[in-house]
Q: What sequence folds into this?
């Protein structure tokens, strides 16, 4: 085994950067592999083109006979680009994307063959989906699942396959994927926000939610990754002592990107360009070998698809460059973890960002309306928001090393805090003309168009306002953004609907003017949602205590965090908006707790194996060397004098024995707890058992293994060390 470690190091040190050819201009290749508007105009009949555009813009249905034209156009384009296969690309509840490839090729009766892709094949497919998680939906309803074309996300070519973004639903209509509820939440938010925006601008016909994600990741050499069974099987290191040098010096952040990595990035970005993923920013992150990539923001549905596609592309391109991408939220203990900040905003059909302050008091009142409603929505649903980012892997990140804690709070910066404080003082009821003028001129009118970005100091806020968007920072790097986005869209949609009702009531019943009514409701919301606002440092005991006083939830581990997903309030929220029904909600919860238990189970097995099969045998081998040495000293110096020379060795022999004993005991007890947990029928009980009874042994076992790493001869140690994983380039 230690041979593998040294071979991997040798291989890594001898690597050369892989050459990458860049296009003269990126804009030239942008979207070249996407069935986008210009391509559709070229390959589709006028009617088909119009019907697709209508489906994209207004969600209208595409006529069956037009689907045949569209599929033919799509096929011709795909073949012209070298595609031979097509697939319905979908997002089952496993967290990654799924696809099953079919060839365009078909034989005909006279024995010859043609390339065929009919409307039916485009619109609907029935994947053999029995192996995708469904939380019992399919058993309960004896329904089969099918994938249905989502025209709002354009088809694209990956390798030699035409990929058609689809939703995955059961025949009884239940969503079996992440995308169907996301689309429903977007529709609901569009309706609610458009209704509210009409207070300010009657011409707006649609409101789109926008998302700009920031993907953090670690990159390590593939040979080094392969030398660690824990990285290979669980995506993170389950043991390993911290290196003498970590990220203390902060010398990696924004430093020069190493050339092998840079070539990987260029290659990946070129692939992204072809796929129409508008990546823009790249840089080193805080931890050694940690990096970040961010695109220009897009409409949420497209941005979600693009993030998922990107993760796929990254893995493939990394292979070419002999790297392994670690998306895990905490691949290395003691250094920063990886997140996926979700920057979210709302844009009108006229291109106005509703979360951007404007140049007039009226525009700012519109801004404040959406700003304050979002804060209120987060306050009312903080526990659900926390639940949507819960996963076994994100548990390691939240609350550690500069990451946000498990408590949701909103950071808005000092300028807007002042504005809200002023608004809170507004008179209850109708406003006098003076007060209103004063308010518009000196409070609302004074919001600067460009807000000072004073959020950089505060990297630990899980939900921060950053000038013209909210940034949900608690999302983990492995997450499918569809999950948090569905929740955020839904809670804001519900909030905006309530807001509309309240404002209309004041106008109708209290005969208030529109802006009086809006000021009144906003004032009320500012008061009610004050507890969610927190400008301080987002982690540590002081904040935990304070948050508890404020009544904010602090669910540290996944099984307890997920509980709220089943609450009546949550189900009512989703059902009232038509985002999900009870069956869908319960099925998802079932899948999530089951996945959690499996995750911990796998890690437990891997850790047990490594400790027993690699660490302990190495420790014994080293101990034997020490014993031989002591025996030799005894031979030379004799019974009476040898201890003087062998005292260090004797202590070491004992220490090694103690650690071996502790490791063995830990593994045996952990296995017993696993056996107990496995007997539990209820999936949620099982998740709790894995969380509370099994997982704590990881720390015990790791502690003693890491101690042995420090004691044992480096030449014998079989596992590639942290310093090698993090600093070998
Ligand atoms: P920086 O923080 O580096 O100055 P920005 O604040 O402009 O950069 O953007 C950070 C991220 O926020 C990017 O991924 C970007 O796409 C996204 N973003 C910017 N504006 C919006 C918006 N209106 N809606 C959603 N995401 C946005
Ligand atoms: Mg960010």
A:
């Amino acid at each position: 085994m230690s041979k593998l470690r040294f071979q991997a190091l040798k291989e890594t040190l001898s690597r050369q950067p892989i050459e990458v050819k860049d296009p003269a201009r990126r804009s030239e290749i942008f979207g070249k592999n996407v069935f986008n508007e210009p391509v559709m105009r070229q390959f589709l009949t006028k009617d088909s083109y119009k019907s697709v555009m209508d489906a994209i813009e207004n969600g209208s249905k595409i006529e069956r006979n037009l689907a045949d034209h569209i599929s033919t156009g799509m096929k011709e384009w795909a073949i012209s680009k070298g595609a031979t296969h097509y697939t319905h690309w979908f997002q089952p509840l496993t967290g990654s994307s799924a696809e099953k490839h079919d060839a365009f090729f078909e034989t005909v009766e006279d024995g010859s063959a043609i390339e065929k892709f009919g409307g039916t094949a485009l619109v609907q497919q029935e994947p053999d989906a029995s192996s995708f998680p469904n939380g019992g939906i399919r058993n309960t309803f004896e329904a089969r699942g099918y994938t249905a074309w989502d025209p709002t996300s354009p088809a694209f070519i990956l390798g030699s396959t035409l990929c058609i973004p689809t939703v995955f639903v059961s025949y009884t209509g239940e969503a079996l994927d992440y995308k169907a509820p996301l689309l429903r939440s977007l529709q609901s938010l569009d309706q609610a926000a458009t209704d509210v925006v009409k207070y300010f601008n009657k011409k707006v016909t649609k409101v789109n939610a926008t998302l700009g994600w920031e993907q953090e990741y670690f990159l390590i050499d593939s040979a080094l990754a392969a030398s660690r069974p824990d990285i290979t099987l669980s995506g993170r290191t389950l043991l390993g002592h911290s290196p003498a040098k970590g990220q203390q010096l902060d010398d990696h952040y924004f430093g020069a990107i190493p050339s092998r990595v840079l070539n990987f990035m260029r290659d990946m970005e070129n692939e992204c360009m072809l796929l129409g993923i508008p990546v823009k920013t790249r840089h080193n992150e805080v931890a050694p070998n940690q990096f970040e990539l961010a695109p220009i923001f897009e409409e949420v549905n497209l941005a979600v698809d693009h993030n998922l596609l990107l993760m796929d592309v990254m893995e493939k391109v990394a292979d070419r460059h002999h790297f392994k991408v670690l998306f895990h939220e905490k691949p290395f203990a003691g250094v920063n973890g990886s997140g996926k900040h979700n920057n979210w905003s709302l844009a009108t059909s006229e291109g106005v960002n509703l979360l951007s302050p404007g140049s007039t008091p009226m525009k700012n009142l519109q801004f404040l309306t959406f700003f304050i409603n979002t804060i209120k929505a987060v306050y009312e649903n903080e526990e659900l928001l926390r639940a949507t980012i819960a996963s076994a892997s994100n548990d390691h990140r939240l609350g550690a090393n500069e990451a946000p804690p498990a408590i949701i709070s909103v950071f808005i910066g000092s300028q807007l805090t002042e504005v809200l404080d002023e608004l809170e003082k507004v008179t209850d009821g109708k406003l006098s003309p003076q007060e209103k003028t004063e308010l518009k001129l000196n409070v609302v009118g004074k919001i600067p168009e460009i807000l000072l970005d004073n959020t950089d100091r505060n990297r630990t806020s899980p939900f921060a306002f950053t000038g013209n968007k909210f940034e949900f920072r608690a999302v983990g790097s492995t997450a499918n953004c569809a999950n948090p986005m569905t929740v955020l869209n839904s809670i804001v949609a519900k909030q905006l609907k309530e807001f509309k009702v309240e404002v209309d009531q004041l106008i109708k019943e209290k005969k208030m003017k529109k802006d009086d009514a809006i000021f009144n409701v906003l004032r009320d919301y500012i008061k009610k949602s004050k507890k969610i606002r927190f400008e301080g440092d987002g982690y540590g005991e002081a904040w935990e205590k304070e948050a508890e006083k404020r009544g904010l939830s602090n669910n540290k581990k996944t099984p307890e965090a997920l509980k709220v997903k089943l609450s009546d309030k949550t189900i009512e929220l989703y059902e009232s908006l038509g985002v999900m029904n009870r069956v869908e909600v319960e099925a998802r919860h079932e899948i999530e707790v089951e996945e959690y238990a499996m995750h911990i189970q796998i890690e437990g097995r891997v850790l047990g194996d490594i400790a027993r099969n690699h660490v302990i045998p190495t420790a014994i081998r080293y101990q034997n060397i020490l014993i031989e040495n002591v025996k030799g000293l005894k031979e030379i110096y004799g019974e009476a004098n040898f201890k003087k020379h062998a005292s260090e060795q004797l202590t070491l022999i004992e220490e090694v024995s103690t650690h071996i004993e502790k490791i063995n005991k830990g593994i045996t007890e952990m296995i017993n707890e696993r056996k107990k947990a496995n007997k539990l029928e209820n999936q949620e009980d099982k998740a709790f058992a894995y969380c509370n009874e099994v997982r704590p042994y990881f720390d015990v076992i790791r502690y003693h293994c890491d101690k042995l790493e420090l004691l044992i001869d480096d030449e014998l140690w079989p596992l590639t060390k942290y310093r090698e994983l993090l600093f070998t380039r």
Observations:
- The longest helix spans residues 582-679.
- Residues 214, 341, 471 surround magnesium ion (ligand 2) (CB under 6 Å).
- The chain has a mean pLDDT of 92.
